[in-house]
Each structure stands twice: as C-alpha cells, then as structure tokens.
Specification:
Elements: E1 2-11, E2 16-25, E3 30-34, H1 41-49, E4 57-66, E5 69-70, H2 76-81, E6 84-87, H3 99-106, H4 114-124, H5 126-130, H6 141-153, E7 159-163, H7 171-186, E8 190-195, H8 198-204, E9 207-212, E10 215-221, H9 222-227, H10 229-235
Helix pairs in contact: 3-6, 7-8
The chain binds adenosine-5'-diphosphate and magnesium ion.
C-alpha cells in the first residue's frame, strides 16, 4: 500500500502546489487521480517517484509510506528499488534508440534476468516484439506509450504511476491503454493513473480522487465518482453552465478497504 498523509508540496518560492493531500493506492488496484490542468496531479506522481527536487519542488509537510517504509528523502533510484516506477507525461522514449535498447535502458536488475524481462515485455506487448529493431522515434504515439510502460515494467515494479497515458491518442488506442491498465492490475500491480480524461480513468479505476487546485475535493469508489453529478458536470463532458462548486469536506478517505 502507498499512503500519502497530509502532504504539502511547494515549488521554488511559489505557493503550495498541493496541500493536505491524503491518498492511498493498493496493489492489484487501479487508483485514478483526475482533475483539470494545474490541479496538482503530476505533482503527486513526482512526490511518489522522488523527482520533485529535479523540478525545484519539495515536500514541506506530511508523510509518504510504501508498504510501511518511509519514502520521503529517498533517491529516485532507491524508490525504483522499492518497487515504484513512474511513466511520465509525454512518454520520453529515446527516439534514436531501438525499441529493444529502450527496454534494456529500463532494466535495473542483473543482466542475467534481462532475457526473461524482455520476453515478458514482448509477450505483453506483441507490437513491440515486431518492432524490436526499429528506432523508437518511428513508432506511433500509442506505440511509444506502450514502450514507455514496457520500459517502466523492466524494473519489475509493484506499483506503476502513469501520467496522462492517453493524452493525444486516438480512441482505439485509448481503449488499448485501458486494457493494458486492467492487465497490469490483473498481474497484481498497483496502478496510479493520472488523467485529464476522467471518463477513461474512472472507467478502469477501482478508486479515485478528484483534485482541484492542489486539494482533494472528492474521493471514493470510482463507480460512485462516475455517477457523481459534480464530477460529471466538471470532468465528464457535462454542461459548463451549471458548473457546481465542490463542497469542502466531501473527501472521505477510508471508505474503501485497506
Ligand atoms: N516545476 C515547477 N515549478 C513551479 N511551479 C510548478 C512546477 N510544476 C508544477 N508547478 C505548479 O504546481 C501546480 C500543480 O501542477 P501540476 O502538478 O503539474 O498539475 P497537473 O498535473 O494537475 O496539471 C500548478 O500550479 C503548476 O503551475
Ligand atoms: Mg500534469
């Protein structure tokens, strides 16, 4: 279990980007974080993967634990070894390297386990097997997203953090990414998925959080959030005219089993 307790994050000398953050993400579950641009979604993932510092950000309050171990202050590499992998927004595959070279770059284990990891990756993503010797820069956006996820899986994570995996993808490819997320869950991995496409994220998630201006305004079972009229109006394509304001205090962490 990943647990975030009362965390605040600040960038540079600016205002806090997230505040009073309380979240949980469990193994073999999909946890969605939805919210508009600038709500703090990416910040939560940077917090969990230890890369806030690289963005001039820091955690100024609260605690984060992974399976009972304190996470704050650990290096990104140590966090990968703890079983968390972050697939950042924008995919960031190495365009001039081949698909297989990209996968090798994601492997943090001894060379002896590389063949097995590659075999697993190609079994999970047959299109990457077909393209293994092609330069990654020649792949479509959706295939690059698959490669970014596959590369993240090369460290055998227990938790995978996905930042906007469907951004800019065609609907058919969005469906494929959804299937991949469900498949990761089925293999026991805890997935934290950040999406502006709330409909997509909540359709595959078990639990979800709605972030607004750095605060959690709603949380609970994804199925309940999907049916929430405020979520529908704000994030699922409802009318913008009757945009409701979130009532503070509706965040009820702890409603789902830990
Ligand atoms: N490197 C940074 N330096 C300063 N402010 C930042 C930085 N990254 C994000 N922010 C600010 O933090 C807030 C949350 O941003 P972010 O986590 O990227 O939101 P989201 O992913 O939901 O769009 C925004 O106000 C954004 O401008
Ligand atoms: Mg973001």
């Amino acid at each position: 279990m990943i647990e975030i307790a009362d965390v605040a994050v600040r960038y540079g000398h600016g205002a806090t980007a997230v505040e009073g953050l309380r979240m949980r993400a469990a193994p073999a579950r999909v946890t969605a974080i939805v919210g508009g641009n600038g709500a703090g979604k990416t910040t939560v993932l940077r917090l969990l993967s230890g890369v806030l510092g690289a963005h001039d950000g820091r955690c100024v309050a609260g605690e984060v634990t992974v399976d009972g171990h304190a996470l704050l202050g650990r290096s990104p590499a140590a966090i990968v070894r703890r079983g968390i992998t972050h697939v950042p927004e924008g995919r960031h595959v190495f365009g001039s390297l081949t698909v297989e070279e990209n996968l090798r770059a994601g492997a943090t284990t001894q060379r002896s386990s590389l063949p097995a990891l590659l075999a697993e990756a190609y079994a999970r993503f047959p299109i990457l097997a077909e393209r293994r010797r092609q330069r990654a820069g020649l792949l479509s956006g959706g295939q690059q997203q698959m490669l970014a996820i596959a590369r993240g899986l090369m460290s055998r994570p227990r938790y995978v953090l996905l930042d906007e995996p469907t951004l800019g993808l065609a609907p058919l490819m969005v469906d494929q990414i959804r299937d991949i997320v469900a498949d990761l869950r089925a293999s026991g991995i805890g997935v934290v998925i950040v999406e502006q496409n709330a409909a997509m994220a909540l359709s595959v998630a078990d639990e979800g959080y709605v972030l607004e201006q750095g605060r959690t305004t709603l949380s609970g079972a994804a199925a309940v959030l999907r049916d929430d009229p405020m979520v529908a109006a704000l994030y699922l394509g409802g009318s913008a005219e009757d945009r409701p304001t979130f009532a503070v205090g509706r965040c009820d962490i702890g409603t789902w089993a830990s």
